[in-house]
């Protein structure tokens, strides 16, 4: 993918996506990301606040009533709830995979069906997460159609 910036006299910022297959998954994800207006995620590391781009987070989970984000390099504390994080960043690939966990689908490398209807996710960094039976059907539908089920 090639990214190019141009200066113009147009009063409003305009983004154009060109390609042979503009209906591809990559083009749709780009349009969702650009249209989502996703704000940075504010996290805590020791005694300071850190701004994370949503695409930096591999997964988020609640542990002992604390919301944490894993970036691959660090585990950082977040404020708010898992539900708030899910709603705010679903358009950029965050998916509820268990009662206490969200995964950023942009980092998924492999999926493997498991007994009892569960799915084992392998992330690009080699970490593995288990999609609970409750959310596995939604993930299968999302992969199949590219859309969430209600």
Descriptive labels:
alpha+beta; globular; three-stranded antiparallel beta sheet; seven-stranded antiparallel beta sheet; 32% strand; 3 helices; 150 residues
Structure report:
The protein has 150 residues and is α+β, with helices and mostly antiparallel strands. The protein is 22% helix and 32% strand. The chain contains three helices and ten strands, in the order H-E-E-E-E-E-H-E-E-E-E-E-H. The chain has helices at 25-36, 82-89, 133-145, and strands spanning 41-45, 48-52, 59-63, 66-70, 75-78, 94-98, 101-104, 108-113, 119-123, 128-131. The strands form two sheets. The protein has a seven-stranded antiparallel sheet. The mean pLDDT is 86.
Break the fold down into its secondary structure elements and pairings.
Layout: H1 25-36, E1 41-45, E2 48-52, E3 59-63, E4 66-70, E5 75-78, H2 82-89, E6 94-98, E7 101-104, E8 108-113, E9 119-123, E10 128-131, H3 133-145
Antiparallel strand pairs: 1-2, 1-5, 3-4, 3-7, 4-5, 6-7, 8-9, 9-10
Question: Helical proportion?
Answer: 10-25%
- State the major sheet: 7 strands, antiparallel
Helix/strand structural class = alpha+beta
Count the strands?
10
Q: Could you tell me the mean pLDDT? A: 86
Radius of gyration over C-alpha positions, nearest whole angstrom: 17 Å
Instruction: Report how far apart the termini are.
Output: 32 Å
- The neighbouring-strand order within the major sheet is 2-1-5-4-3-7-6
The helix/strand series, from N terminus to C terminus, equals HEEEEEHEEEEEH
- The coarse overall form would be globular
Count every helix, treating DSSP H or I runs of 4 or more residues as helices.
3
Oligomer: single chain
Sequence stretches where pLDDT stays below 50 over 5 or more residues: none
Hey, roughly how much beta strand do the residues contain?
A: 25-35%
